[in-house]
Amino acid sequence: MTMGTMPVGTEGFLVPLGDEESDGFWEGTAAGELRIQACGSCGELRFPPRVMCPHCQSTEREWRAMSGKGSIWSFVVPHPPLLPAYTPFAPFPVITVTLQEGPTLRMVGNLVNGPGGAINEIDPATIVIGEPVHVVFSALRRPDGTDVHLPQWVREADRGQA
User: Fold this and answer.
1) How far apart are CA 11 and CA 13, in angstroms?
2) Which of 11, 14, 55, 124 has its CA 20 to 30 A from that of 142?
3) Radius of gyration (Cα) for the chain, nearest Å?
4) H or E stretch covering 25
5) Count of CB atoms within 10 A of residue 127's CB?
6) pTM above 0.70?
7) Gap between the Cα atoms of 151 and 153, Å rounded
């Protein structure tokens, strides 16, 4: 997803900035909804969002709400050296999720126990490829004082706790 620059937020974490192509995504996260760009001509879903449909080359686009469900496709565990704000949390898992709506729709994020969870609260040894997850949103403060709502992932088995 095009994010422009990635400024450091008030907590020291990198904070995404929206742009014309990704604003619909960030508007959705602020509303507690996972939205994916769709071609306004052929209807093909695409993520990350982009100007032109790779299937029919149309520049028409719209945003569609997704179920927020998916499964863990892969994961990594970053270790130092990292950016200073992330070092105290390492090691922590970063997962890639395949969305239920399509095998080519993949998103990267943290596996947490619930909204606002620490990025290192899940033991990476417990992660299972193919495990069902669902999206939650956590606010992160931008330097200008506004919040961005980041998608994070919770195990489907923990849904009642999130």
Assistant:
1) 6
2) 124
3) 16
4) helix 23-30
5) 17
6) yes
7) 7
The phi-psi region of residue 107 (left if phi > 0; otherwise alpha if psi is between -120 and 50; otherwise beta) is beta
Structure tokens, 126: 């417990």
Helix (H, G, I), strand (E, B) or coil at 126: helix
Listing DSSP states for 43-83 in one string gives --EESS--SS-TTT----EEEEE---EEEEEEEE---SS--
Cα 106 from Cα 71, distance rounded (Å): 10
* C-alpha span between 152 and 112 (Å, rounded): 7
The single-letter code of the amino acid at 38 is A
Residue with tokens 């052929």: 42
What does each C-alpha distance from 92 to 43, 47, 75, 77 come to in angstroms? 36, 25, 10, 5
Q: What is the pLDDT of residues 104-145, one digit of tens each?
A: 999 999 999 999 899 999 999 999 999 999 999 998 887 788
26 DSSP 8-state letter: H
